[in-house]
Every structure is written in C-alpha cells, then in structure tokens.
Amino acid sequence: MEKMGLKELWKEVGKINKEYFPDNKLMPILGNGETRKPKIMFVFINPTHLNISSKPSWKGPRYPFIGTKSVWRVFHKAGVLSDALMRRIENNEWSTEFAEELLFFLKSKSFYLTNLVKWTGSNAALPDSRKINLFLPILEKEIEIVKPEFIVTFGLIPFKALAKQEIRLKDYYEEAMKKKKLRVFETRIKSHESKIIPCYFPVGRGEPGKAKDLLRMVNII
Description:
This protein is an alpha/beta fold. It contains eight helices and six strands, in the order αββαααβαβααββα. It has helices spanning 6-20, 70-77, 83-90, 96-108, 129-146, 156-163, 169-179, 208-218; strands spanning 32-33, 40-44, 111-115, 150-154, 185-189, 192-199.
C-alpha cells in the first residue's frame, strides 16, 4: 500500500470485504469530509445497516451516520452541528443531495468522519479482534494520507488501537471537567505525528451526555 491515495485505499477496502466477507450485501462505509489536513478526524468503531448509504442502491456519498439522528443530536448539542442542519436531520431529509450538503458542511468545518472497521454489520455488535486487526492497517494508512491535526476516538476500542495504551474514560472525563482542559495523547501513526483525544461513544452503550461535554471542549480547540 505504498504511495496510496484515498481512492486506491477504498479499492483495498472493497477487496478486503469481497475476500473475507463475500456473503455480506451491505456496502462498507468509507471516511469522508475534509480530506487534506483537517482540524479534526472523528473515528467511530463500525457502521451498521442503519446507515442508509450502506445500501448498494445508494447513489450519494458514503460516510458515517447518513440516515440516522442520535449521533448528530450529540454533535448539535456540543455546538458542532448547525441548528438548520439539525432541523433537516430531524425531519428525515436524507436525500443524496442533503447528504452532499452535510458533507460540504463537514468540509467547511475542517472535519473528517470515519470508522475503525470498514465492514457494515446488520446489528450494533462490537467488532471482534479479527475485524479490528484486519482493518486497523487501513485506518492507519487513512490517517497517514489525510493528516489530521487532532483525532477524536469514540470509545476505547479505537483509542487503544491507535494510541497503543489503555485508559479509563471515567478518569479522563473527570480530569477534563475538573481542569477544563483536554489531555492530548501524542503518538506516531505511520509517518504522521498525531494528537489523540479520547471520547465516550455518543450513542447506544456509550455516554451521550459525557460525550457532549467532551465534544464541547474539542470544538473550542
């Protein structure tokens, strides 16, 4: 995977899905947003069928959480997403045109959204170690290509995979709230020096309220 751009990297994702998961009919969800040195790369865990761009018939861009509401609500409460866009999300205006419009907004904010595991499941089960090990080199190459200034990892799975260490999010959160400052973990991913900020997962088994608090602090960096 030398001298590879995102276009070539996505072809590699397609090959991996066809080779290892030939019976899965859902499309992998790719990273998208500002692709050249964004301020923040947001790294989630794995996509599910609730993302409508996982349907093979979808003709628009593919990126995390198209067609859903919960994560965008947390982003909105944290001041990351505009009121106007949130109203349209609440009204289910998920046409391909709106997906493009939201993508333009993400680019204007210098944001990039992606997943650690680029395999789409039929439920919200966490990926096993096999899938993580299979797709981690893809994410690391993606980071090397995109070159984000900061990486926000949602949940401990992507944090541990990228930072190569373990923390307790409860301790991190309490420290951040007490000091009113985010502790940044500096690490090298491929040839890129990265600054990683851990965050609670914003939906499901995560902590939406605490994720919102941390994202508010991320938004003023």
